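Slide 14.
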Amino acid sequence: MEKIEGYRVRSYSQPVKRYCQTLSLRNNPELIAAYKKAHSKEEAWPEIRAGIREVGILEMEIYIIGSKLFMIVETPLDFDWNTAMGKLAKLPRQAEWEDYVAKFQQCAEGATSDEKWQMMERMFYLYD
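Slide 15: predicted structure.
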């Protein structure tokens, strides 16, 4: 049996909240490979990573299975999603990035990140 490793979670000096979203990619192995490469440490646009932090996001992770993406966003408790996404959409190169990655995604032309990614509802946790 293959050993399964988990992913280390960042610790913060403050309580945080988490947002979870999903998005589908075009079901094409070459496009999926190119999308993964575009998000690699070496290829990800530094302006986009800086903008994500500038609007108050502490951490963002994207997971993939097949053509389905799952994103986890961690923020401070006082973070306002709508305000931050409005600000993010206006940052330098953000619209250019969204247009670039749209060719890999199942989305409407010209959509912002907030319009592409669908917010998920938490339906279970350990209730402690």
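Speaker note: The CA atoms of residues 26 and 105 lie 5 Å apart.
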